[in-house]
Amino acid sequence: MHEQEDPQILNDQINLLYRSAIPGIAATVIASAGLAFGFKNQSISDDKLLWWLCLSVLMVLRSFDTFLWLKRSIKGIVGSKNDLYRYSSGAILTAFFGSFFACFFIIV
Length: 108
Prior knowledge:
Keywords: Membrane, Transmembrane, Transmembrane helix. The protein is mostly helical. It has 3 helices and no strands.
């Protein structure tokens, strides 16, 4: 049996996620730049640059999505499951890039 969720509770949950996205995105950009450019290893520097560029594009998309959400939130538009799925997709892709870095550059 599927329980109907209160739209206001869902909106508050999504609002909390998106408001915490801004410092998370900033920390990800700083940490990824440190990982990509902080250590000198010429054999994989092009691969690290490509990884950093891909992650940076993802962070720009997540920032754009966050600012759109905040703009909608200020207007009083109530969030939906699609907003939650969009936020979750960005967070999962960010985690994938971090895991990829560990597996490809550190383990290999």
